[in-house]
Amino acid sequence: HTRGCGEMIRTALICGSIIGLLAGCSDPDKQVLFDGQQFSGRLKADKEDKRNFVASAGPVSQSLDGAREAARFEGTTYCIRRYGRSDIEWVASPEAEATALNIVEDVLIVQGRCAE
User: 84: closest CA among 38, 48, 49, 51?
Assistant: First the structure.
């Protein structure tokens, strides 16, 4: 019976640690920086096929390279959490030539699909 209790305590400690890590994700002091800057990123999945998504990051005026990485991060994080893989088939890639990027009101918009 003691062995079961020890396992329960260990499980509770592990779960508590994970919850603490996830809580840190919303802490602005612990946000991920790209090119030394903080970016606002968003992702919207397609309603009919959740593998398809549109990700955005800005402001681009802070750093184009940073915005590229922040948008890629949004897509990669989504695919890992939802499908367990980081592979993305980009439709509108964050790696496109600067003149081909979709930038609207200082926000970079990319489009991809989580690989199957």
Answer: 51
Nearest CA to 114 among 83, 92, 93, 91? 83
At residue 69's C-alpha, the angle toward residues 65 and 72, to 5°, is 140
> What's the mean pLDDT in 69-82?
97
Which structure tokens are listed for 82?
Answer: 């939802």
The reply to whether 72 and 36 lie within a common domain is yes
* C-beta of residue 34 within 8 angstroms of C-beta of residue 70: yes
Q: How many domains is the chain built from?
A: 2
Judgement on whether residues 9 and 37 belong to the same structural domain of the protein: no
Look-up of token digits 């959490």: 81
Shared domain for 7 and 49, answered yes or no, is no
Q: Can you tell me which residue has the tokens 């003149």?
A: 99
Q: Residue range 70-79: average pLDDT?
A: 97
pLDDT tens by residue, 1-36: 444 444 544 444 444 444 444 444 445 555 788 998
Let me know whether 91 and 45 are in one domain. Answer: yes
Other Cβ atoms closer than 10 A to 1: 4
